[in-house]
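Hallway conversation turned thread

IA: we were arguing at lunch whether anyone had actually written out DUF481 domain-containing protein end to end. Turns out nobody had. So, for the record, here is the sequence (308 residues) and right after it the structure tokens. Reply here if something looks off.
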Amino acid sequence: MIAFVVAAALALSPALLDAPLPSATPGDSDVPIPAAIKAMLDAAIESGNEGDVATIVKYARVADPATADTVLHIAGTWRADRAAARNETIRAAGMFDLWRGRAELGGYRTSGNSDTLGLTAVLDATREGLNWRHKFHAQTDYTENAGVTTREHYLASYEPNYKIDERLYIYGAAQYESDRFLGYYDRASTSVGAGYSAIKSPSIKLDVELGPAFRHTYLTDGTTQDSPAARGTVDFQWKLLAGLTLSQTGSAYAQRYNSTVSGTTAVNAKLIGPLSAQLSYYVQYESEPPVGSVSTDTTSRAALVYSF
């Protein structure tokens, strides 16, 4: 959580670079752009990085005010053309196109209700449309020792988002979990609510969600629990350096029988091409665990990640 505080302070600087470029009409200045500035602007546009373009425009306006309007017009036209091309690609895409995500495979160590070493696999996929965003997540942890299963955790979730504007959206969420070592064979959760992108820049992202939920739990003692709940989530990502990212996600379900709070802190370092290495630490808290179980489980993971 400390990262949130630091990021909020630093977010003011990226926000200045990421703000929409002021509009300018062609012909506002007949003075040619200095060759050095034009070369840097062309290189930034060629890279396709909006943050780089905004930075060049910012300092070009200071270095040569006489051509500021021309620089603004060139960058603004590039942004408009790029957005139009992106929107056309999205409109023409099929249901199985435009998915982006990552597959993770590695090892883990747990503490709490089980102290084990084992294998972990994670799949995340997101599809960004003009009005809709779709997010899918699946994870499994498994350990077997001398023919006896000592860790078996499964989780799958799907979340569609309807975009109200650039920051505000309505979400729906469905999640299934199974972990008999935490005291339940099956736990299904559904939720509908609102989400907001509080920070949205090339280097820092912070999304928050809040809404009502409903949970159904089939416990290992054979009983079931059905209860309305409140759901809240936080998704934070911070690109510390080129190829190095800090992320922190958290979720909470508050309900009558058993409330759950979980969070993951991870550091991801790019290795080569689509491959990266990741270290993460996961904590899950259950307010009313079954008799014989403890409230808090932790999992430390080291994995290779393939981005697609």
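OS: looked through it. The first helix runs from residue 2 to 18.
IA: good, adding that to the notes. Confidence is low (pLDDT under 50) at residues 1-29.
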